[in-house]
């Protein structure tokens, strides 16, 4: 087993508010991964990204970037597609400057178009990007969003520059509570491990959902889904995985999960 665990953004307890402070805080907490969340805009320039990369390398923290949320590669409005591609290209450029292995993207919405057509639109858009960092296409938590496990797996198979981002909470919401057993988690990891994905980049949070759609994030003590099952699967197998915590109790839950992965928990 090789599992790295970290936070999405600067830990809440961190005194400093810069990205560099965030990397140091994650390391001080005993975590080893950090995702920089460009929620609305890409707020780092290449020079500061390079500095972040140097410190992260020294502290052995693996970095990822999350592209802004306002992206839709399948929009029926061409100007939205142009803007979306610019957001992705800029995120990849900063990811490369800091040596991040993956830039996470919410690819888009179906907008009433046939799913097969949306797949082709998104696939062709993905193939346009050239970067050292992989384009991380995330599994999404609403029915109207592109990003089922099948769709993401097919993209990974058909685009050499795409890597999956397995958001277990999104999968749980989209399948209306489908992650119930160790085998449910294992089947997903096996699928991407079988495609040669290493490390498998994952997001973790508890989630409130209704009718196959996510509502909001919860602490992992909500056991929706039960991440103790994932911890056991990771400990008992040889996956190379990175787990980024996005719960409202970000660093506490990241550390709790680390405990679950390290020590067998009775269920
Ligand atoms: Zn995301």
Key attributes of the depicted protein:
TIM Barrel; eight-stranded parallel beta barrel; binds zinc ion; alpha/beta; globular; 267 residues; 10 strands; 20% strand; two-stranded antiparallel ribbon
Please describe the topology of this protein.
Elements: E1 2-8, H1 19-28, E2 33-37, H2 46-59, E3 62-66, H3 78-98, E4 102-105, H4 115-126, E5 134-138, H5 149-158, E6 162-167, H6 168-174, H7 182-193, E7 200-204, E8 206-210, E9 213-218, H8 227-236, E10 240-245, H9 250-262
Helix pairs in contact: 1-2, 2-3, 7-8, 8-9
Zinc ion is lined by residues 66, 104, 106, 138.
Molecular structure report:
With 267 residues, this protein is α/β, with parallel strands linked by helices. The protein has a single domain, classed as Divalent-metal-dependent TIM barrel enzymes (TIM Barrel), CATH 3.20.20.150. It is built from nine helices and ten strands. It has helices spanning 19-28, 46-59, 78-98, 115-126, 149-158, 168-174, 182-193, 227-236, 250-262; strands at residues 2-8, 33-37, 62-66, 102-105, 134-138, 162-167, 200-204, 206-210, 213-218, 240-245. The strands form two sheets. The chain has an eight-stranded parallel barrel, surrounded by seven helices. Strands 8-9 form a two-stranded antiparallel ribbon. α1 runs parallel beside α2 (46-59), α2 (46-59) packs across α3 (78-98) and α7 (182-193) crosses α8. The model has no long low-confidence stretch (mean pLDDT 96).
């Amino acid at each position: 087993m090789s599992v790295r665990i970290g936070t999405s953004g600067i830990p809440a307890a961190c005194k400093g508010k810069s990205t560099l402070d965030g990397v140091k805080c994650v390391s001080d907490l005993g975590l080893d991964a950090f995702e920089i969340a460009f929620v609305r805009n890409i707020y780092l320039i290449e020079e500061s990204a390079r500095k972040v990369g140097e410190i992260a390398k020294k502290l052995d923290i693996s970095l990822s970037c999350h592209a802004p949320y306002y992206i839709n590669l399948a929009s029926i409005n061409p100007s939205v597609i142009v803007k979306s591609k610019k957001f992705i290209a800029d995120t990849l450029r900063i990811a490369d400057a800091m040596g991040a292995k993956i830039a996470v993207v919410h690819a888009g919405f179906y907008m009433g178009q046939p799913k097969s057509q949306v797949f082709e639109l998104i696939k062709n858009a993905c193939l346009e990007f050239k970067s050292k960092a992989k384009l991380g296409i995330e599994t999404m938590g609403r029915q109207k969003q592109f990003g089922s496990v099948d769709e993401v797996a097919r993209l990974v198979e058909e685009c050499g520059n795409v890597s999956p981002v397995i958001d277990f909470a999104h999968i749980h919401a989209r399948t209306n509570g489908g992650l119930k057993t160790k085998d449910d988690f294992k089947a997903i990891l096996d699928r991407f491990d079988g495609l040669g994905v290493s490390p498998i980049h994952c997001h973790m949070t508890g989630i409130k959902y209704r009718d196959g759609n996510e509502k909001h994030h919860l602490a992992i003590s909500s056991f929706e889904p039960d991440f103790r099952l994932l911890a056991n699967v990771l400990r008992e197998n040889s996956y190379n995985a990175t787990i980024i915590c996005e719960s409202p109790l970000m660093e506490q839950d990241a550390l709790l999960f680390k405990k679950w992965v390290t020590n067998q928990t009775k269920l």
